[in-house]
Design goal:
alpha/beta, five-stranded parallel sheet, 6 helices, 5 strands, globular
Length: 153
C-alpha cells in the first residue's frame, strides 16, 4: 500500500521525480507510474489499484496536468474514493484549478525557493507519517480490545 500516489503530466516529470525522491528519503512509500510500473504490467489497472490503495494523492496541478485526460481520470478517482488530495500548483493561480479539484486547499509553489519546497514537502511527509501511525495505533488498539473481550468469555 503506497503512502503517496503522485499524479502528474509527463511534461512535469523532473518535478515528479524530485518529489518522489524526497518522499522516499522521508521513508514514505510512493507510487509514481513512470518509476513504479514494471515491464509487462497492465498499466491502467495497476495505476488505478495503486491509487485506490494509497493514503494520499499529490496532484502536480500544472497547466499541462489539468489538460491531461489521464490525470483528470486519476483525480476524479481520488475524489470519488475519498482520498486526501493535495493539489500542488506553480504555473497558475489556485482559482484556475479545474472545478473538480478547486475544492481542495492547494500548495502554491509560485515564487518559492528550492529550500522552501523541500521544507513544505518534509512537513507534508510528516503529516502523512503521523496519520499512518495513528491508523496503526487505532488498529492495534481495536485488535487488543477484541482479543481482551474474547479472552474474557
Amino acid at each position: 500500500m503506497p503512502d503517496v500516489f503522485i499524479s502528474f503530466s509527463m511534461q512535469d516529470k523532473p518535478f515528479a521525480d524530485f518529489l518522489h525522491n524526497h518522499l522516499v528519503a522521508e521513508k514514505l512509500t510512493v507510487f509514481q507510474a513512470s518509476l513504479s510500473l514494471k515491464s509487462g504490467q497492465q498499466w491502467s489497472r495497476e495505476i488505478m489499484q495503486q491509487l485506490k490503495d494509497s493514503r494520499c494523492v499529490l496532484f502536480l496541478a500544472s497547466k499541462a496536468a489539468c489538460l491531461s485526460p489521464f490525470v483528470q481520470q486519476e483525480i476524479g478517482a481520488s475524489i470519488i474514493t475519498g482520498k486526501n488530495l493535495v493539489p500542488v500548483i506553480w504555473d497558475m493561480p489556485p482559482e484556475n484549478l479545474p472545478g473538480w479539484a478547486n475544492q481542495y486547499q492547494a500548495v502554491n509553489l509560485a515564487g518559492v525557493t528550492n529550500d522552501s519546497v523541500q521544507e513544505i514537502f518534509t512537513e507534508i511527509a510528516g503529516r502523512i507519517k503521523f496519520e499512518k501511525n495513528m491508523s496503526c495505533l487505532i488498529g492495534g488498539l481495536l485488535v487488543a480490545g477484541i482479543l481482551y473481550v474474547s479472552n474474557k468469555k
